[in-house]
Amino acid sequence: MTNLPGPDLLAPGAAEAWLRHLGEEADAERLRAELSEGTLPRAFHQVAARDPGRTALTIGGETVTHGELDDLAARVGGWLQGRGVEPGERVVLCGGNSLDLVAGYLGILRTGAVVVLAGPTLTEHELRHLVENSGAACALAQDPALEKLSSIFGDDGFVVALESGEPTSEDSLRRAISDGEPLEPRDAASDEVALLAYTSGTTGQPKGVPLSHANLLSSIRAAMWSWRWAPEDVLVHALPLSHQHGLGGVHATLLSGSRAVVHDGFDPGAFCEAVESERATIIFAVPAIYERLVEWEGEADYSSLRLAISGSAALSPALARKVSELLGQDVLERYGSTESGLSVSNPYEGPRRPGLVGLPLPGTELAVVDDEGRCLEPGEDGEIVLRGPQVFSGYMDLPDATRESFYAGGWFRTGDIGRVDPEDDYLTVTGRSKELIISGGLNVYPREVELVLEDHPAVERAAVVGAPSERWGEEVVAFVVPEGGDGVDTGALADHVRERLSAYKCPKRFIEIGELPRNELGKVQRDELVRAAEEETRAGPS
Ligand code: AMP
User: What is the largest CA-CA distance in the chain?
Assistant: First the structure.
């Protein structure tokens, strides 16, 4: 990216400066155009060509330089093209974190085909939906998805094996490409679709989210910029690369010529060992990982870290405090989604306030609106809407869902409820709109109740849901994970909540639970909790 806007937009106070500049249309447009410029394969190739010998990635026990990764991308691309994969075609990519997965990803991009990202734990039924919905005719996949995808495609497509380390399978990608002709990145428009991600689909079928090169580049560039990502940085993370959060770390590394150590799954000992021995400067994690990190009893030297970033789910202030004590610095929270990319972040300099996700990233506009899409005053709760070059333009082949998800002018309805602080404009995310509890006709925002519960010393973590109730329509039910082994005195907890919240927000029931059910990104699976609360109702008082 050339011709970056001046340092006044970079910080200190990057986001505030950006907000001021939003008034000046010429600057705003120029910045957005620069954030979106180019394509992923070209941008990665340019950085690799500048300094090919720099280490890029350590993953699955293998370490490669930017030049070696670029060469792998070229050979995978060349081989795929040789097998007839054309620009615009869909190719499923499904596996755990490995060098093969990254090479496969970069190779598909190089052909101009669209990467269909699939989580490695998807069932055959879920994979079938992705294949049929995307129209993919081939896949790069790791066991056990490899077998499932082979049976889904039958004779109508082909599947190549992604492996970790030395290839063992006859159909392995690395064997296949050993004599492949390298492919140069092609000329392409930045609004071409690079990736088809799928929503997690907790309600209904997962929806396809087409993301263009411009969407993906502007999303990560704005964050890199705000976080001062530099070639000297070393990122460590253990997030799945099949999700935008983990994949964004690889994008940042390849765009900056820096280095990343990516684990396949989180193990606190291995993670901390990597932070210490690699002198990591940045870590990416979700709150569920930070929870396990603070519980870990080992010791590590975290002094090299300059940024501990959290996102994908709400970070409780109590956990944020524990992480700050452990790492000797405050966590930097950021907020985003598959559809809207990275959108909001605590500023690099300036206060990082636990539980608040911060200010819009450069290039992003944010508003909080009521049910009719009218802007609300700071301090009022409403739906968070976003606009910017990183926001997708609509779900694949779903015009109705797309229409419902946008307001006029390209404002994406995130489905998240939030409020902007009247003092400093920081955004708080209070929950998903579909998680809103309507009890006795009044709105209860689960996160508000959870924060009060988590403020009690006997509570480590809480999740609040609405369970069907004849009397209230929905009743507020709190699931609490006790801090330590002593359990929770629910009478004392009820008093604690009553002192702080209006009666209609106070849980009617408290259910103690060892661990909250979560998905692989650490998001609490509230539908499971609602089912558990319903079962308890059916079972009656014990
Ligand atoms: P995904 O599309 O899987 O990335 O999920 C996006 C959703 O995760 C958002 O719409 C929010 O509901 C939630 N989310 C992401 N980041 C945060 C955060 N920092 N705090 C609270 N919720 C978050």
Answer: 71
Ligand 1 binding site (Cβ under 6 Å of any ligand atom): 200, 244, 311-314, 333, 335-338, 357, 414, 416, 429, 432
**C-alpha closest to that of 111 among 25, 188, 198, 166:** 188
Residue 397 identity (one-letter amino acid): D
- According to the 3-state scheme, what is the secondary structure of 479-492? EEEECCCCCCCHHH
Distance separating alpha carbons of residues 139 and 158, to the nearest angstrom: 7
> Which residue bears the tokens 């002094």?
303
Bridge partner residues of 287 (DSSP): none
Q: Is-contact 342 358, C-beta < 8 A? A: no
Distance 428 CA to ligand 1 centre (A): 12
Beta strands of 329-482 (E only): which ranges?
332-337, 341-345, 359-360, 365-369, 382-387, 406-407, 411-420, 427-432, 437-439, 442-444, 459-469, 473-482
pLDDT tens figures, 95-126: 999 999 999 999 999 999 999 999 998 889 89
CA distance 268 to 296: 7
Residue to mutate (ligand 1; options 335, 359, 435, 526; most atoms within 8 A of CB):
335
pLDDT at 268 over 70: yes
Residue 471 pLDDT? 82
Asked whether the predicted pLDDT for residue 217 surpasses 60, the reply is yes
151-167 in b/e burial notation, b at 16+ Cβ within 10 A?
ebbeeebbbbbbbbeeb
314 C-alpha vs ligand 1 centroid, how far in Å? Answer: 8
User: Taking the model in full, what pTM does it have?
Assistant: 0.88
Q: Which H or E run includes 55?
A: strand 55-59
Q: Going by CA atoms, what residue is nearest to atom 6 of ligand 1?
A: 337
Output the CA–CA distances (angstroms, integers) from residue 213 to 109, 326, 341, 392, in the order listed. Answer: 10, 38, 12, 11
| H or E element at residue 538 | helix 526-539
What is d(CA 217, CA 210) in angstroms, rounded to the nearest whole number?
14
Q: How many CB atoms lie within 10 A of CB 424?
A: 14
